[in-house]
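Next up, a chain.

===
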Amino acid sequence: MKVLITGAGGMVGGALAGHCRNLGDDVQAFDREGLDITDERAAREAFGRLKPEAVINCAAWTDVDGCELDPQRAFLVNSQGVEALATAARLAGASFVTVSTDYVFDGLKADWFYTQRDDPHPASAYGAAKLEGERRAQMASARTSVVRTGWVFGPGGRNFLATAVERARRGARLKAISDSWGTPTYAPDLAARLRELAELDLPGVYHVVNSGEGTSYEGFARAAAEAAGVGGVEIEPVLMDSLKRPAPRPRNSRLRCLLSEAVGLRPLRDWREALAEFAGMSK
């Protein structure tokens, strides 16, 4: 398959480019310097020249607090940029898959998973911009598949989840939120599913996370230390509200998909199994 990937400089985009190449795909991968997704003319020219069969967008501004402080830029990148890519994909005759976020939900649904039956209600500028990007993409191209995910970890990541194993091995003291829950997602597993959805070309909204009941950041940190084979790591539980961050976060953003199995896609493996693989790679 001829695949064009945006956001290839990030954790998910990099994993996706490698996965597609391993499958023998003809891959055109753009990082932020290679293609400004907010420049619709540049996107149309690039897609028209390269003629991809599928476009998979992993590009986004994911600095949640930065988005809260600069909502205009958040909407430019995460809404208008996604619309520009969807439009360019449609004109090129390509299917379009775009990565969205669990932050489209406010997190007030206690002790249960968010599915496609739940109405999005973002509490932050980041979540609002990503939700608007979903809707604009669907309006711009009828061949749009939206992939909501969250709590992503994997090689090359710089967030808490991606660095927990390495920090545990160093014996670093970890502070981890104990009252916020999500469903961890391993970047290589997410990448494989993105490629499957691009080939399947069945538009819709998909929730893509690893299997399991989810966990808190504290629970993930403890599981990461165990997967790394490190005992005695000091993990200090902290409450989410004590961090005083500019942007509100959903307290519960666990996701489950009602559509994937219906279209023949098996659930991703349990997040603890994926974490064990990641820990093994990180030695």
